[in-house]
Design brief:
Elements: E1 8-11, H1 19-24, H2 35-44, E2 50-56, E3 59-68, E4 76-77, E5 81-89, H3 98-109, E6 115-122, H4 131-136, E7 140-149, E8 158-166, E9 175-176, H5 178-181, E10 205-207
Parallel strand pairs: 5-6
Antiparallel strand pairs: 1-2, 2-3, 3-5, 4-9, 6-8, 7-8, 7-10
This protein binds coenzyme A.
The site of coenzyme A has 17 residues, from β5, α3 and α4.
Length: 208
């Protein structure tokens, strides 16, 4: 793919034309208004949730999703902290600064934030939300918990990190409820920490 210095970044939070991307993201999954996502969006959008797509040659090749901590997909708390639920650039479009452009757009849009937080993984079997990738945006780990999945890749330990990037002098780092995190997340079926309903478990991870 040729690099385009000016791909467009479109906020689709309240744009019906792109509604399916509020649910299906870039994963090749059928569009379905699934219950958990619907419930999440209903609460999060009025509180400041945003989802943006990066479009190049009319093709959606990247996305970013974020919300104030209290409306985020993770059990993160902090004063004026904005949490990035997800950032994703398709593999075929990687390495053209698109990830950085999405992240710069987030920082520009949320100037009053005390800083940005996200969750990153270390030694997880999937290629998703890797710690080193989040470090490339300037995040640093400020807390972590070592866990195992109760149903998948049993006995494989991985670390979940709370990543933090302060943007104001004296910003107080956010906190992560490790206990709540053991339940997994509900905001996106494609997220590696997603808790599927069929699991019939309260906590999908155990500390180790
Ligand atoms: C993280 C991600 C968004 C970066 O997007 P990108 O467009 O490829 O990255 P950029 O071109 O903006 O580069 C950002 C930085 O990462 C570096 N980088 C990107 N890919 C790299 C690689 N494979 N190896 C080493 N460094 C790499 C770039 O050199 C750049 O660093 P620099 O500023 O020091 O030069 C992208 O790799 C991605 O989508 N990863 C998967 C994220 C994910 O799991 N999402 C959730 C799905 S559920």
């Amino acid at each position: 793919m040729k690099a385009n210095p000016k791909p467009s970044i479109l906020d689709i939070t309240k744009n019906n034309e792109y509604e399916k991307y509020l649910y299906k993201c870039l994963a090749p999954m059928p569009f379905r208004k699934y219950r958990k996502r619907h419930e999440y969006l209903k609460i999060a959008i009025p509180k400041g949730f945003r989802k943006k797509l990066l479009i190049f040659n009319r093709e959606v090749i990247g996305q970013i999703e974020y919300a104030p901590a209290e409306a985020s997909g993770f059990p993160i708390s902090g004063d004026k902290v904005v949490v990035m639920n997800c950032i994703w650039v398709l593999r075929k479009a990687k390495g053209h600064n698109f990830g950085k452009q999405l992240f710069a757009d987030l920082m520009k849009s949320e100037k009053s934030a005390s800083g940005f937080a996200t969750v990153a993984l270390e030694n997880h079997w999937s290629p998703w939300m890797k710690k080193w990738q989040m470090e490339k945006f300037g995040f640093k780990s400020v807390d972590s918990v070592s866990v195992m999945h109760k149903l998948k890749h049993k006995e494989e330990r991985f670390k979940i990190h709370l990543m933090w990037l302060p943007t104001k002098k004296n910003s107080k780092p956010p906190t992560l409820s490790k206990q709540k995190l053991l339940d997994g997340v509900n905001f996106c079926t494609a997220h590696p920490l997603y808790h599927p309903e069929k699991a019939k478990l309260r906590e999908i991870f155990e500390k180790c």
